[in-house]
Design goal:
With 243 residues, the chain is of the alpha/beta class. It has a single domain (5-239), classed as Purple Acid Phosphatase, chain A, domain 2, CATH 3.60.21. Helices cover 30% and strands 15% of the residues. It is built from eight helices and eight strands; from the N terminus they run αααββαααβαβββαββ. It has helices at residues 5-16, 28-31, 43-56, 97-107, 113-116, 125-141, 182-185, 217-222; strands spanning 68-69, 76-81, 149-153, 188-193, 200-204, 207-211, 231-234, 237-239. The strands form two sheets. The protein has a six-stranded mixed β-sheet. The protein has a two-stranded antiparallel sheet with strand order 7-8. Strand 1 and strand 2 form a beta hairpin. The radius of gyration is 17 Å and the shape is globular. 33% of the residues are buried. The mean pLDDT is 92.
Protein backbone atom coordinates (compact mmCIF):
# COMPACT_ATOMS: atom_id res chain seq x y z
CA UNK A 1 0.00 0.00 0.00
CA UNK A 2 1.43 3.37 -1.01
CA UNK A 3 2.31 5.59 1.94
CA UNK A 4 2.68 9.35 2.10
CA UNK A 5 5.02 10.81 4.69
CA UNK A 6 2.07 12.19 6.66
CA UNK A 7 0.45 8.74 6.75
CA UNK A 8 3.66 7.20 8.09
CA UNK A 9 3.85 9.82 10.83
CA UNK A 10 0.21 9.28 11.77
CA UNK A 11 0.75 5.52 12.08
CA UNK A 12 3.92 5.86 14.14
CA UNK A 13 2.28 8.39 16.46
CA UNK A 14 -0.66 6.02 16.95
CA UNK A 15 1.72 3.16 17.80
CA UNK A 16 3.76 5.37 20.12
CA UNK A 17 0.59 6.17 22.08
CA UNK A 18 0.07 2.46 22.73
CA UNK A 19 3.59 1.10 23.23
CA UNK A 20 6.44 2.20 25.49
CA UNK A 21 9.00 1.91 22.68
CA UNK A 22 8.52 1.82 18.92
CA UNK A 23 11.27 0.73 16.54
CA UNK A 24 10.95 1.62 12.84
CA UNK A 25 12.62 -0.02 9.86
CA UNK A 26 11.78 1.34 6.39
CA UNK A 27 9.97 -0.77 3.87
CA UNK A 28 9.97 -0.16 0.16
CA UNK A 29 6.57 1.57 0.16
CA UNK A 30 7.75 4.12 2.71
CA UNK A 31 10.63 4.99 0.39
CA UNK A 32 8.40 5.54 -2.63
CA UNK A 33 8.31 9.10 -4.01
CA UNK A 34 4.73 9.64 -5.13
CA UNK A 35 3.39 12.57 -7.13
CA UNK A 36 0.53 12.83 -4.61
CA UNK A 37 2.86 13.19 -1.59
CA UNK A 38 3.58 16.79 -0.53
CA UNK A 39 7.01 15.53 0.56
CA UNK A 40 8.75 15.24 -2.80
CA UNK A 41 12.14 14.09 -1.52
CA UNK A 42 13.76 11.10 -3.20
CA UNK A 43 16.06 8.28 -2.17
CA UNK A 44 18.48 8.98 0.66
CA UNK A 45 16.95 12.42 1.27
CA UNK A 46 13.51 10.86 1.82
CA UNK A 47 14.95 8.23 4.13
CA UNK A 48 16.73 10.91 6.20
CA UNK A 49 13.51 12.94 6.34
CA UNK A 50 11.70 9.92 7.78
CA UNK A 51 14.52 9.29 10.26
CA UNK A 52 14.26 12.91 11.46
CA UNK A 53 10.49 12.55 11.74
CA UNK A 54 10.88 9.40 13.84
CA UNK A 55 13.37 11.07 16.16
CA UNK A 56 11.01 14.01 16.60
CA UNK A 57 8.28 11.70 17.89
CA UNK A 58 10.56 9.38 19.86
CA UNK A 59 10.66 6.38 17.49
CA UNK A 60 13.94 4.42 17.18
CA UNK A 61 15.45 4.05 13.68
CA UNK A 62 18.34 2.16 12.09
CA UNK A 63 20.45 5.30 12.58
CA UNK A 64 20.13 5.37 16.37
CA UNK A 65 21.97 3.55 19.17
CA UNK A 66 20.66 0.00 19.42
CA UNK A 67 18.17 -0.41 22.30
CA UNK A 68 18.68 -3.27 24.75
CA UNK A 69 15.88 -5.52 26.00
CA UNK A 70 16.58 -6.27 29.68
CA UNK A 71 13.41 -8.14 30.58
CA UNK A 72 12.89 -11.90 30.76
CA UNK A 73 15.13 -13.56 28.21
CA UNK A 74 17.49 -10.57 28.09
CA UNK A 75 19.68 -8.77 27.74
CA UNK A 76 19.17 -8.78 23.98
CA UNK A 77 20.32 -5.99 21.68
CA UNK A 78 17.55 -4.99 19.26
CA UNK A 79 19.07 -4.12 15.88
CA UNK A 80 16.83 -2.29 13.40
CA UNK A 81 18.22 -2.82 9.90
CA UNK A 82 17.92 -0.99 6.61
CA UNK A 83 19.92 -2.68 3.87
CA UNK A 84 17.43 -2.71 0.95
CA UNK A 85 18.02 -5.20 -1.93
CA UNK A 86 20.52 -5.71 -4.74
CA UNK A 87 18.75 -8.01 -7.24
CA UNK A 88 20.88 -10.99 -6.12
CA UNK A 89 17.82 -13.14 -5.30
CA UNK A 90 17.61 -14.01 -8.99
CA UNK A 91 15.14 -16.42 -10.59
CA UNK A 92 16.43 -19.74 -11.91
CA UNK A 93 18.13 -19.50 -15.28
CA UNK A 94 19.48 -15.97 -14.73
CA UNK A 95 22.95 -15.04 -13.56
CA UNK A 96 23.01 -11.24 -13.71
CA UNK A 97 20.82 -8.35 -12.64
CA UNK A 98 20.12 -7.46 -16.27
CA UNK A 99 18.98 -11.02 -17.04
CA UNK A 100 16.79 -11.15 -13.94
CA UNK A 101 15.14 -7.82 -14.74
CA UNK A 102 14.65 -8.79 -18.38
CA UNK A 103 12.85 -11.95 -17.32
CA UNK A 104 10.66 -9.98 -14.92
CA UNK A 105 9.61 -7.55 -17.64
CA UNK A 106 9.04 -10.41 -20.06
CA UNK A 107 6.73 -12.19 -17.63
CA UNK A 108 5.07 -9.00 -16.39
CA UNK A 109 6.13 -9.51 -12.77
CA UNK A 110 7.78 -6.18 -12.04
CA UNK A 111 7.84 -4.49 -8.64
CA UNK A 112 6.46 -0.95 -8.56
CA UNK A 113 9.76 0.06 -6.97
CA UNK A 114 11.18 0.29 -10.48
CA UNK A 115 8.95 3.30 -11.11
CA UNK A 116 8.66 5.06 -7.75
CA UNK A 117 11.51 3.99 -5.45
CA UNK A 118 14.38 6.30 -6.32
CA UNK A 119 17.92 5.82 -5.04
CA UNK A 120 19.33 9.38 -5.34
CA UNK A 121 22.20 10.17 -4.98
CA UNK A 122 23.14 6.55 -5.71
CA UNK A 123 22.83 5.43 -9.33
CA UNK A 124 20.67 2.39 -8.51
CA UNK A 125 18.98 0.57 -5.61
CA UNK A 126 21.77 -2.02 -5.58
CA UNK A 127 24.38 0.74 -5.22
CA UNK A 128 22.36 2.18 -2.32
CA UNK A 129 22.13 -1.34 -0.89
CA UNK A 130 25.93 -1.73 -1.02
CA UNK A 131 26.37 1.53 0.87
CA UNK A 132 23.83 0.47 3.51
CA UNK A 133 25.50 -2.93 3.88
CA UNK A 134 28.86 -1.30 4.53
CA UNK A 135 27.69 1.01 7.32
CA UNK A 136 25.35 -1.58 8.87
CA UNK A 137 27.91 -4.38 8.91
CA UNK A 138 30.43 -2.06 10.55
CA UNK A 139 27.97 -1.22 13.35
CA UNK A 140 27.14 -4.88 13.91
CA UNK A 141 30.82 -5.80 14.03
CA UNK A 142 31.32 -3.23 16.80
CA UNK A 143 29.06 -5.18 19.15
CA UNK A 144 31.00 -7.19 21.77
CA UNK A 145 31.66 -10.77 20.74
CA UNK A 146 28.83 -13.06 21.81
CA UNK A 147 26.21 -10.31 22.16
CA UNK A 148 22.69 -11.79 21.76
CA UNK A 149 20.75 -9.83 19.16
CA UNK A 150 17.27 -9.48 17.74
CA UNK A 151 17.68 -8.54 14.08
CA UNK A 152 14.72 -6.58 12.70
CA UNK A 153 14.41 -5.86 8.98
CA UNK A 154 11.61 -5.14 6.55
CA UNK A 155 13.34 -7.31 3.95
CA UNK A 156 14.23 -10.98 4.57
CA UNK A 157 17.90 -11.51 5.42
CA UNK A 158 18.11 -14.84 3.59
CA UNK A 159 16.85 -16.15 0.28
CA UNK A 160 14.96 -19.09 1.79
CA UNK A 161 11.63 -17.36 2.56
CA UNK A 162 11.31 -16.31 -1.08
CA UNK A 163 11.42 -19.90 -2.37
CA UNK A 164 7.66 -20.21 -1.91
CA UNK A 165 6.72 -17.07 -3.85
CA UNK A 166 4.07 -17.68 -6.49
CA UNK A 167 6.10 -15.53 -8.87
CA UNK A 168 9.82 -16.25 -8.35
CA UNK A 169 10.76 -13.24 -10.49
CA UNK A 170 9.66 -11.00 -7.61
CA UNK A 171 12.36 -12.32 -5.27
CA UNK A 172 14.98 -9.96 -6.72
CA UNK A 173 13.24 -7.06 -4.92
CA UNK A 174 13.30 -8.90 -1.59
CA UNK A 175 16.83 -8.73 -0.19
CA UNK A 176 20.49 -9.47 -0.76
CA UNK A 177 22.64 -12.59 -0.60
CA UNK A 178 25.21 -10.58 1.36
CA UNK A 179 23.14 -10.82 4.56
CA UNK A 180 22.69 -14.60 4.30
CA UNK A 181 24.95 -15.38 7.27
CA UNK A 182 24.21 -12.38 9.49
CA UNK A 183 21.95 -14.37 11.80
CA UNK A 184 24.93 -16.65 12.58
CA UNK A 185 27.71 -14.06 12.52
CA UNK A 186 25.94 -11.56 14.73
CA UNK A 187 24.39 -13.77 17.40
CA UNK A 188 20.73 -13.53 16.44
CA UNK A 189 18.31 -15.05 18.92
CA UNK A 190 15.49 -14.22 16.52
CA UNK A 191 15.27 -12.57 13.08
CA UNK A 192 12.12 -10.57 12.38
CA UNK A 193 11.09 -9.41 8.91
CA UNK A 194 8.05 -8.61 6.77
CA UNK A 195 7.70 -7.66 3.07
CA UNK A 196 6.56 -11.04 1.71
CA UNK A 197 3.12 -11.09 3.36
CA UNK A 198 3.60 -14.77 4.19
CA UNK A 199 3.45 -14.75 8.00
CA UNK A 200 4.91 -17.69 9.85
CA UNK A 201 7.83 -19.16 11.76
CA UNK A 202 10.82 -20.92 10.21
CA UNK A 203 14.20 -22.06 11.49
CA UNK A 204 17.60 -21.66 9.84
CA UNK A 205 20.88 -22.76 11.45
CA UNK A 206 19.03 -23.12 14.74
CA UNK A 207 17.81 -19.51 14.64
CA UNK A 208 14.12 -18.62 14.67
CA UNK A 209 12.88 -16.45 11.80
CA UNK A 210 9.53 -14.69 12.17
CA UNK A 211 7.66 -13.16 9.22
CA UNK A 212 5.25 -10.82 10.97
CA UNK A 213 3.55 -8.77 8.26
CA UNK A 214 -0.23 -8.57 8.38
CA UNK A 215 -0.72 -8.08 4.64
CA UNK A 216 -3.19 -5.95 2.75
CA UNK A 217 -6.89 -6.00 3.74
CA UNK A 218 -7.76 -7.94 0.59
CA UNK A 219 -5.13 -10.55 1.46
CA UNK A 220 -6.66 -11.00 4.88
CA UNK A 221 -10.07 -11.50 3.28
CA UNK A 222 -8.64 -14.20 0.99
CA UNK A 223 -6.70 -15.85 3.81
CA UNK A 224 -8.90 -15.72 6.91
CA UNK A 225 -6.60 -18.15 8.73
CA UNK A 226 -3.78 -15.59 8.84
CA UNK A 227 -3.09 -14.04 12.25
CA UNK A 228 -4.61 -10.59 12.74
CA UNK A 229 -2.73 -9.75 15.92
CA UNK A 230 0.76 -8.55 16.75
CA UNK A 231 3.33 -11.30 17.22
CA UNK A 232 5.20 -11.63 20.51
CA UNK A 233 8.91 -12.24 19.83
CA UNK A 234 10.47 -11.86 23.28
CA UNK A 235 8.49 -11.48 26.52
CA UNK A 236 6.47 -8.24 26.27
CA UNK A 237 7.80 -7.37 22.79
CA UNK A 238 5.15 -7.31 20.05
CA UNK A 239 6.21 -6.74 16.45
CA UNK A 240 4.83 -5.92 13.03
CA UNK A 241 7.16 -5.17 10.09
CA UNK A 242 5.10 -3.27 7.57
CA UNK A 243 3.03 -4.34 4.60
Amino acid sequence: MAEKAADIEWALRALSARFATVVWVPGNHELWSLSTDPVQLRGEARYRYLVAMCRRIGVITPEDPFPVWRGAGGPVVIVPLFVLYDYSFRPDGTTTKDEALALAYETGIVCSDEAVLHSDPYPSPDAWCRARLKVTERRLAELPQGTPTLLVSHFPLTREPTRVLRYPEFAQWCGTERTADWHVRFGAQVVVYGHLHIPGTTWQDGVRFEEVSLGYPEELDLNPERPRILRQILPAIDMYCGG
